[in-house]
Amino acid sequence: MEKAESNKMQSMSVKKLVWNMGLPMIISMVLQALYNIVDTAFVINMGEEGINANLALTYAFPVQIFMIAIGVGTGIGINSLLSRYLGEGNKKKAGETAGNGLFMGLIIYLVFLLFGLFASKAFIKMQVSDNEEAIQMGSDYLFIVCVLSFGQVGYTIFERFLLATGKTLYSTIGQITGAVANIILDYVFIYPLKMGVKGAAYATAIGQCLSCLMDIIFHYTLNKEVKFGFKDLKPNHETILGILKMGIPAAIMQGLLAIMMLGVNLILGTLNTNRELLQDSFGIYYKIQQIPLFAAFGMSNALISIVSYNYGMKENDRVKETYKWGLIDTMIVGLAFTIIFEACSTPIASLFGMATGSSSSGIMNTVTLAIRIASVGFVFMALSVSTQGVLQGLRYVYSPIFISLLRLAIFVFSLVFLFTLSSKATTLLWLSFPLSELLTAVISFFIGRSSLKKSLNQKAVQLTQEAN
């Protein structure tokens, strides 16, 4: 299997290869984003409690994003090291990597378990102090998803075991199983059983556990290339460092999503008027825009593999082609989502606007406005994210993180703070996001082009020296 994948990355036309490898990853990442969107759509339509229920999920969401970030970062580290050893035919080290990856997953789960048990309420109260109903709902939700997060952590680990051997279809099936279960259970738990926000949390956790179970079954029945036993669970310093070397930068980039949401929530929390309306609307919009963002991440993950492989093979022309088509194709994905969101802004917002109470129409109108303004930035976001994937494939560490800092912290926080000083903050706030994406995309383009030229020149010099 590994040989076939390697031949494909070397011989298939780059234009076709980017879609061939990127599309399954796009589907998988988009399904991951749907978990929180489905929860939000159901809880905000609970009735009188819907507005505070959505606030509760908004306050809890940064931790969920951080959980995804840690899992994805660790998974990328495992995938990178595992693929390397499988390519070398070193089954012993591959098994050790898989075992140590599972050990690290256990440690990650224990950290979130402790957070859920002892810090969930304090985290919610940090963002709001005068809405006891939202605080209690948010604490309950965060407690459940953290305590039962072994499903999400386990899925992330076993998904990477499948991806390392090219079995992307089976990891996607696992994601679909969990996502469908989550939708069904959300309805059953929240409405017929009237479990409220707790029901949404249990639906999410159970869906993640089912995805994990499916991937475990696929791994042990179909993934014969990766074998490990109890002895491989013993921590190995060298192996763990190898996983962290690639995993930490990826986790930081994903983790900045949580920092961005938390930071914007804190800035909006300082407002004297329309505070909860804007926090509610921002929470909904941010979850909606996870769909195009995670789609771009899926394509970026494919670019990492293609660029890394061809750069290692000294195929400079194919690296250049990957850079060109990677940026173009990811921007096509971003543009497609912009068109869809612009055309369907009102129907999308209406999914979150059926709650009763005086705030419902205000939230729906604000979310519609947010989608229409902010979705213009999806194309620019796609350029930045795809550039990060190319840079990671070229083994750059700091420049991808710098790009994330620009788009998720430096520009966003500055613009959000500036616009909230205006009397028209309800409208101007949403301009912060496309402007941040535009500014970051311009800088990303020059960083990407410069870094690519530098790397390929170094490789050309190396080839010349080897020839002589």
User: What's the overall geometry?
Assistant: globular
Head-to-tail CA distance between termini: 36 Å
Counted up, domains total 1
The strand count comes to 0
Give a short synopsis of this structure.
The protein is mostly helical and 468 residues long. The chain has helices at residues 2-11, 14-43, 50-88, 91-118, 120-127, 132-147, 150-164, 168-190, 196-222, 237-268, 275-288, 290-312, 316-343, 345-350, 360-374, 378-393, 398-420, 425-428, 432-467. It has 19 helices and no strands.
Structure description:
By secondary structure, the chain is mostly helical. The chain has one domain. 84% of the residues lie in helices and 0% in strands. The chain contains 19 helices and no strands. Helix 7 runs antiparallel to helix 8.
Keywords:
468 residues, mainly alpha
Helix and strand layout, with pairings?
Elements lengths: L1 H10 L2 H30 L6 H39 L2 H28 L1 H8 L4 H16 L2 H15 L3 H23 L5 H27 L14 H32 L6 H14 L1 H23 L3 H28 L1 H6 L9 H15 L3 H16 L4 H23 L4 H4 L3 H36 L1
Helix pairs in contact: 2-3, 2-8, 2-9, 2-12, 2-13, 3-4, 3-6, 3-7, 3-10, 3-11, 4-6, 4-7, 5-6, 6-9, 7-8, 7-9, 8-9, 10-17, 11-15, 12-13, 12-16, 13-16, 16-17, 16-19, 17-19
